[in-house]
């Protein structure tokens, strides 16, 4: 069956991302929007778009019945969940399929299996996937957990079984901190996920976060699209991702990728998925988790392999065979993604809000800005502070870094405090340039990543700019002629 | 002419400030500066001070300050001396560190609080931020109701010792 119309159950840049591929495939797109998103491009550019009303997320983007109703009314034959929101909600996946609509994603069984950190580890241990030493048992007595932690050896990590995003997580370096950390993690887990089950694991010092992009069809083809290096994280959230991972031997790269495929084929997976691994400095790698959806950072993989992952998701969902073989998938050059957030990195990453006066357009070759906003739209308090993803491809890593730094200056997001300058500091850091990435990069180099003080020349430049902000000021004849070259070129740009 | 600017909350004084048509000149810290406006596209500017660079000035916020970008640097500023902040001036006032929504009120008016104890929780971008008392005392005022949206830098509650 060919999919003719897709409802995207998401917002912002990922809704637009799905829209782009659908347009290439001649598929109609239905989008949905909460009232406070009414002016954002995902609510404007689709073939049809419907309001989800006002209220909390549960009333809007997480309202399963409302979404399925809209899909039925509009005659959509498939639902794409994007990432976040309902993308890893097994109940939603099952409800969609029960309503006779295709869910563009894995089966409810796969989502359930991988959503349970303990259950997934137990299942994968049986197919010899390397696991970090730890205790994932059902005996959740504090005394038992403490005993297991001592057996594993410090430092240990205590984290919520149902968790994510760093909630219900504690690192314990010595026995004296243990009991308090277990209780703390448990109560945080209970609050965040209504489940206080925690697991205890060996804590790897200076680990790297390496993940593998997978794609499986329903004809027993389980492919990988190589790895991504996602070690640069703040508050357990990725902000810079790249592929290929620097300083990784070809042998280890293939071993990691093949292990990931062992998982997708082992659980008979369907669609796009990502297996995350922890890579220790000694070359040992351990399964961390599997995300049963398209990842935020999927574009870097698309840039170096030349394959459209959303297209393959749609093809798999309609029952097609993947049109490529493993041997056809190759990495060419280097791609880097920077997540541009509305936040102040120099004030504890506090979120910021405001009206975006001007976004700006990247001008270099092979640069992609996946952005869910338009000039003049507002960044509010209700959603994730990610404004856009700047994705840059270069023939090699050093070219990709230079291009990214230049492009970060071109996407202004004038009007809202962003982390652009902070991203430039990371990409210019000598350890990043050398490819020495690990998950503690940001805390370890905190001092190096502080903003450079404005010097006298910077202040003069800023005052110079501010002097010309007054639009009522009359300009002289000569400059008036030069005044607006871009406007005159509009015909060419469109 | 002397002119006072505010950049990132600091007053910056310049001398011999002259702004005629598309050029501006001034002296900052004893050094003469000259900028020419080469082109403008709305809020984006091309300036020349011997070399050309891009700049942009955002729409001013309610307190008159704009986001300024010039030559790859970014700041918040205004073509005026520093304003005294009104909000947060109350003694014992607990201010919002950022815009958000009142997510939880943990202490009602009249409740005793200890220094460091959370009085209310502000929610922004799906994250919760505890607003803590800066002293031992009694909550005397809570300025907002549950679920209300608040700006950054406003007084949310007051505690007196």
Describe this structure in words.
The complex is a heterodimer of chains A (494) and B (161). Helix content of chain A is 35%, strand content 22%. In chain A, the strands form five sheets. Chain A has an eight-stranded antiparallel sheet. A five-stranded parallel sheet of chain A has the order 3-2-1-4-5, with helices on both faces. A four-stranded antiparallel sheet of chain A has the order 6-9-7-8, covered by helices on one side. Chain A has 19 helices and 21 strands. With 494 residues, chain A is of the alpha+beta class. Chain A folds into three domains: 5-104, Rossmann fold (3-Layer(aba) Sandwich), CATH 3.40.50.20; 133-202, ATP-grasp fold, A domain (Dna Ligase, domain 1, 2-Layer Sandwich); 208-444, ATP-grasp fold, B domain (D-amino Acid Aminotransferase, Chain A, domain 1). Chain B folds into two domains: 3-78, no CATH class; 93-160, RNA polymerase II/Efflux pump adaptor protein, barrel-sandwich hybrid domain (OB fold (Dihydrolipoamide Acetyltransferase, E2P)), CATH 2.40.50.100. In chain B, a hairpin with a 2-residue loop joins strand 2 (10-20) and strand 3 (23-28). Mean pLDDT of chain B is 88; it is low at 86-90.
């Amino acid at each position: 069956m060919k999919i003719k119309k897709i409802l995207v159950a998401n917002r912002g840049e990922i809704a637009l991302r799905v829209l782009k591929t659908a347009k290439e495939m001649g598929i109609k797109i239905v989008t949905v929007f909460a009232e406070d998103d009414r002016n954002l491009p995902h609510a404007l550019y689709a073939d049809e778009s419907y309001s989800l009303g006002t209220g909390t997320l549960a009333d809007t983007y997480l309202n399963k019945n409302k979404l399925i109703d809209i899909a039925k009314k509009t005659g959509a034959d498939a639902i794409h969940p994007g990432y976040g929101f309902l993308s890893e909600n097994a109940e939603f996946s099952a409800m969609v399929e029960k309503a006779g609509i295709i869910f563009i994603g894995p089966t409810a069984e796969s989502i359930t299996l991988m959503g349970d950190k303990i259950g997934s580890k137990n299942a994968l241990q049986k197919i010899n996937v390397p696991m970090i030493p730890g205790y994932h048992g059902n005996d959740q007595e504090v005394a038992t957990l403490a005993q297991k932690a001592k057996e594993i050896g410090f430092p240990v990590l205590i984290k919520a079984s149902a968790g994510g995003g760093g909630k219900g997580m504690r690192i314990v370096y010595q026995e004296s901190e243990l009991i308090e950390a277990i209780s703390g993690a448990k109560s945080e887990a209970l609050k965040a996920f209504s489940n206080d089950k925690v697991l205890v694991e060996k804590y790897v010092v200076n680990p790297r976060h390496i993940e593998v992009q997978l794609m499986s069809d329903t004809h027993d083809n389980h492919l990988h699209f190589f790895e991504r290096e996602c070690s640069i994280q703040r508050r357990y959230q990725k902000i810079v991702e790249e592929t290929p991972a620097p300083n990784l031997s070809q042998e280890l790269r293939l071993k990691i990728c093949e292990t990931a495929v062992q998982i997708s084929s082992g659980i008979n997976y369907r669609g796009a998925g990502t297996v995350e691994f922890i890579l220790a400095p000694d070359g040992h790698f351990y399964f961390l988790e599997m995300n049963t959806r398209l990842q935020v950072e999927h574009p870097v993989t698309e840039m170096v392999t030349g394959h459209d992952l959303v297209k393959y998701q749609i093809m798999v969902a309609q029952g097609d065979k993947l049109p490529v073989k493993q041997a056809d998938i190759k990495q060419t050059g280097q791609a880097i993604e920077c997540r541009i957030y509305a936040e102040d990195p120099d004030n504890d990453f506090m979120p910021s809000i405001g009206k975006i006066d001007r976004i700006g357009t990247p001008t270099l070759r092979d640069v992609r800005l996946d952005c869910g906003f338009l000039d003049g739209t507002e960044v509010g308090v209700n959603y994730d502070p990610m404004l856009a993803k700047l994705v840059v491809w270069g023939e090699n890593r050093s070219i990709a870094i230079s291009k990214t730094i230049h492009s970060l200056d071109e996407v202004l997001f004038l009007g809202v405090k962003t982390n652009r300058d902070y991203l430039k500091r990371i990409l210019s850091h000598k350890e990043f340039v050398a490819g020495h990435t690990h998950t503690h990069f940001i805390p370890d180099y905190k001092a190096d990543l502080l903003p450079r003080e404005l010097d006298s020349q910077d202040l003069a430049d800023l005052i110079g700019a501010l002097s010309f902000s007054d639009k009522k000021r009359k300009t002289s004849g000569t400059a008036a002629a030069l005044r607006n070259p871009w406007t005159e070129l509009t015909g060419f740009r469109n | 002419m002397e002119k006072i600017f505010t950049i990132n909350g600091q007053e910056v004084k310049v001398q011999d400030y002259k702004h005629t048509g598309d050029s501006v000149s001034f002296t900052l810290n004893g050094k003469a500066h000259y900028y020419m406006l080469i082109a403008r596209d709305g809020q984006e500017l091309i300036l020349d001070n011997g070399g050309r660079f891009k700049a942009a000035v955002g729409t001013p916020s309610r307190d008159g300050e704009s986001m300024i970008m010039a030559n790859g640097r970014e700041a918040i500023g205004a073509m005026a001396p520093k304003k005294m902040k009104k909000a947060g001036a109350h003694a014992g006032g607990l201010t919002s560190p950022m815009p958000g929504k009142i997510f939880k009120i943990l202490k009602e008016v009249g409740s005793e609080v200890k220094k460091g104890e959370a009085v209310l929780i502000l929610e922004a971008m799906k994250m919760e931020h505890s607003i803590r008392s800066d002293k031992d005392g009694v909550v005397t005022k809570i300025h907002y109701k549950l679920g209300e949206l608040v700006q950054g830098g406003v007084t949310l509650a007051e505690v007196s010792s």
